[in-house]
């Protein structure tokens, strides 16, 4: 998607977000669920599992629960199997579907020597304060594995911090709603599952920057932590994660929909 098309989306989004609420009768009709990584992009690795497989299992379970509990909402997946989906395409899928909510599922990781770190955190698109820049670059680094990434991303280079100037133009105009939803997810993890919360963070994650709707990326646990790796791979753990995200969606829907 070219910059002029993105700016058009952003202009329309600004008009919508400037109003106190959505139009009368607004309902959440479409949710896009994004299983992070996939194919030749495994993401983070633990002692016995990979991020791409965990994120896909959680994404499919979340979609199944939504279809069962909220049949009036259309569910779209960015992938349903172990395939490589370009980062730009994930956001494009949501934009083309006029989605009302974008949820990306990921696992967190720390370098060797930090295996004790654990917890859940949820990201929203941000303007990349310096202390967050490294994490954003690491997450966006997948695009270097994609063919013609410079043309697809209008010259964006994930290893060059100066290109975040471009991303600042694409900042998510639904920031407030994204933060509200992210907080609901974090609160749900804490209250329902007694998970350790690392909070809601603003980062320049490319897939979120390009979404023209409220969008979050939720890190469901540290695959580098032995205890959490077992938890996020277990049926019990994945079911609890899904139930917590679903509870957040339910609360967000109740809050955002206009009768």
UniProtKB/TrEMBL annotation:
UniProt keyword annotation of Hydrolase present: yes
Protein origin, superkingdom: Bacteria
GO cellular component: outer membrane-bounded periplasmic space
Pfam families xrefs: Amidase_3 (PF01520)
UniProt-listed InterPro entries: MurNAc-LAA_cat (IPR002508), N-acetylmuramoyl_amidase_3 (IPR050695)
Transmembrane segments: none
Record's catalysed reaction(s): Hydrolyzes the link between N-acetylmuramoyl residues and L-amino acid residues in certain cell-wall glycopeptides
GO biological process entries: peptidoglycan catabolic process
EC number: 3.5.1.28
Name this polypeptide is given: N-acetylmuramoyl-L-alanine amidase
Organism per entry: Pedobacter paludis
């Amino acid at each position: 998607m070219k910059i002029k098309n993105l700016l058009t989306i952003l202009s329309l989004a600004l008009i919508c977000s400037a109003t106190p609420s959505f139009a009368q009768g607004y309902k959440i009709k479409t949710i896009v669920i994004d299983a992070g990584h996939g194919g030749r992009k495994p993401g983070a690795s633990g002692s016995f599992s990979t991020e791409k497989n965990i994120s896909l299992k959680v994404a499919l379970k979340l979609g199944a629960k939504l279809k069962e509990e909220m049949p009036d909402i259309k569910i779209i997946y960015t992938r349903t199997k172990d395939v490589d989906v370009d980062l730009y395409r994930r956001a494009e899928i949501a934009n083309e579907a006029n989605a009302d909510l974008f949820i990306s599922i990921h696992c967190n990781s720390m370098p060797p020597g930090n295996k004790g770190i654990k917890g859940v955190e949820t990201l929203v698109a941000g303007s990349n304060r310096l202390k967050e820049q490294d994490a954003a670059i690491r997450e966006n680094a997948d695009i270097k594995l994609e063919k013609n990434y410079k043309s697809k991303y209008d010259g964006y280079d994930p290893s060059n911090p100066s290109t975040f100037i471009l991303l600042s133009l694409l900042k998510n105009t639904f920031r407030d709603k994204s933060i509200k939803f992210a907080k609901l997810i974090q609160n749900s993890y804490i209250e329902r599952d007694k998970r350790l919360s690392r909070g809601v963070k603003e980062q320049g994650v490319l897939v979120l920057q390009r979404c023209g709707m409220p969008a979050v990326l939720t890190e469901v646990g540290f695959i580098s932590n032995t205890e959490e790796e077992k938890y996020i791979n277990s049926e019990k753990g994945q079911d609890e994660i899904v139930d917590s995200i679903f509870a957040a969606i339910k609360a967000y829907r109740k809050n955002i929909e206009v009768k």
